[in-house]
Amino acid sequence: MSIYRIKVIPGAPKTENRGFLADGTWKVALAAAPEKGKANISLINFLVKELGVPKSQVKILSGATARLKLVEISN
Which residues of the chain have pLDDT under 70? Predict the structure, then answer.
C-alpha cells in the first residue's frame, strides 16, 4: 500500500503531471472542472494510467472537495 499526497489543479487546459512540490507533494493538473466529482474521477483515471494499477486499487482517503488530497494505492 502506498499513500500519495496530491495537489490538484482543476480546470487546466489538459490533464498532466506537473512534478513535485518541495515537500514531496505530487502536483497534477486536471482538465476536468471541480464540480460533481468530475475532477476526482479525472484524478483517479490519471493515476490508473500513470501508475498502471487497476481502478479498484485507487481510493481518495481525504480531500474529496479540496485541492489537496491523500490517495491510497493498494496492492
Answer: none
Separation of alpha carbons 64 and 21, rounded Å: 20
**Terminal Cα-to-Cα distance of the chain (whole angstroms):** 6
Q: In 3-state terms, what secondary structure has residue 68? A: strand
- What CATH number should be reported for the domain holding residue 26? 3.30.1200.10
Domain count, the chain: 1
Helix (H, G, I), strand (E, B) or coil at 18: strand
Provide the residue range defining the domain that includes 38: 2-73
The b/e string for 16-49 (b: 16+ C-beta within 10 A; e otherwise) is eeeeeeeeeebebbbebebeeeebbebbbebbbe
Q: Is the distance from CB of 16 to CB of 27 less than 8 angstroms? A: no
